[in-house]
Amino acid sequence: IICLRALYTLLDSTIPRNMLMADKTLAIELCNVLHRLLLTRESLEAQQLVMEVLKQVLKAAQENFDALKKKTLREMVPANQESLAVEEVDLLGEGESSGDIEPGKSLVFAMLEVCLCHLVRQLPALNPAPLVSAGVRPITHKPEQSGQLIATGLNVMEQLPKLCSPQGAVSILPTLLYLTTGVIKECAVKNVNDTSVLASTPQIAAALHCLRVLATDKFCKDPRSGQQWKTLLQSALAKIIDLAKTGCEETKLDEVTILLAVTVFLLHAPAEVVQAPNLQYPCINHMTQCIQSNNLQVKLNCLQTFRRILTHSGCNISTGYIHALAPRVMQYLHSDAARKVNSETELALTIESINIVDALVQLTEPQNKELLQGIQMLSMLVPVLVEFLLEGTSFQEANKVRKSLHEQSLQWLMKIGPQYPQEFKAIMTQSLQLRTRVESAIRNNQQRIRIEATQKPTVSTTATVSVPTIKLKTDFRNFAT
Q1: Residue 412 lies in domain
Q2: CB pairs under 8 A, 24+ apart, for 172-178?
Q3: Distance between CA 340 and CA 334 in Å, rounded?
Q4: In terms of domain of life, where is this protein from (predicted)?
């Protein structure tokens, strides 16, 4: 423990990190030592310190690689033309043009080996060769401690492609994706009757972040590695979809975790990754199942995900999800469950559904007219909002969340009017009942505001002199200061 702390402190300074990277074999040997410590030390503190030292090695390697690229750029081209040679200096990373990552000679391989051992100690099922490494015993820590350790390993692992050339990064990508999806598979399992959401645990959050980092890596769009990278991302997405289908009578995979993992690919991976029909349709099917779930948290997360797809994705990606999910959102808004809200979660479901329809209306503006017609979407949204308005004494009798739904619906209507004046006027003209309810709600709202204003106690501006609780025998007021 003391030695690990000393190493961490030593490598916390720039000069020792530079000295470590002056001879790469020294850094590799240090990683081998860390690997052996992971195999032989059971304590939580030792495991944590090993990974903290590994982070310092990673930092040293990244600093050294960045310095090497800058130096090479200065030597190759003038300062104002550096961008022309960036692709060439990428080949200075591990793997170079061949993509070979050699054990014993590669620092990236040594660090990846430490990460693998670290994860396997927490999750033995991740071991790709269990028979060969049968002597590696799993460590039993508290779930929150184990989760944090797993997250640390993933945080280090996701940075390794930055030390590689395009082909070198492709060489380690299958291992990175295998371990990341493996963490999701092992850590997102719960009882079939469990309604909790596991996506917020440290290890799942780290796995999702790792997927996002890998999906947005610059080598994904590099012509030298892009096609292979996208193919591997498709394999990872296929595995995640397959995980959603697997299970047994007693356990299942957390629906929200799968949903968020799919969302990472939809929002951040290149469009070609998710547009393959054999991947797109299962993704849509999973979201359809989630939006129909009896678990309100699952349903809410699905609605939030759908809205993010609408606001971030291109038309080619979002169209299939609109066709599958938008009718179900409208069906929910017309149901009693959307109107008769009794909890904050139920209110959030209704508001999120309105947000989705509002986002669909935005898609009908001139640049997106090929998707939907604005007047059609508004003609569906406005009656729903009017239906959520409370009339007469029903406002006073309603609970807190129902009043909130009324107020937010009225605010939406008052926003839609000026934003889409012609369409809104046409809808109001077609239905006298809608117009009457909206006008009545506005009058009642203004009346409540006036009543509340008159009922507020007036604050006296004159300062009140407080009478002292302790009286002195001598009066000092006439004494000069």
Answers
A1: 340-452
A2: 172/101, 172/108, 172/109, 172/112, 173/214, 173/229, 173/232, 174/232, 175/112, 175/116, 176/112, 176/210, 176/214, 177/214, 177/232, 177/233, 177/235, 177/236, 178/128
A3: 11
A4: Eukaryota
Do 290 and 156 belong together in one domain?
yes
What stretches of 388-430 show up as alpha helix (H) in DSSP? Answer: 394-397, 400-419, 421-430
Q: What is the pLDDT of residues 269-308, one digit of tens each?
A: 999 999 999 999 999 999 999 999 999 999 999 999 999 9
Cβ atoms of 165 and 96 within 8 Å: the answer is yes
Distances (CA, A) of 125 to 121, 183, 292, 464: 9, 9, 32, 73
CA distance 106 to 35: 15
Residue/partner pairs of 243-246 with CB below 8 Å, 24 or more apart: 243/181, 243/184, 243/185, 244/282, 244/286
Q: What is the pLDDT of residue 479?
A: 45
- Domains in the chain: how many in total? 3
3-state secondary structure of 191: strand
| Partner residues linked to 191 by β-bridges | 251
Answer yes or no: is 249 within a domain: yes
252: part of which helix (H) or strand (E)?
Answer: strand 251-253
Three-state DSSP class for residue 333: helix
* Count of helix runs (H) and strand runs (E) in the chain: 22, 2
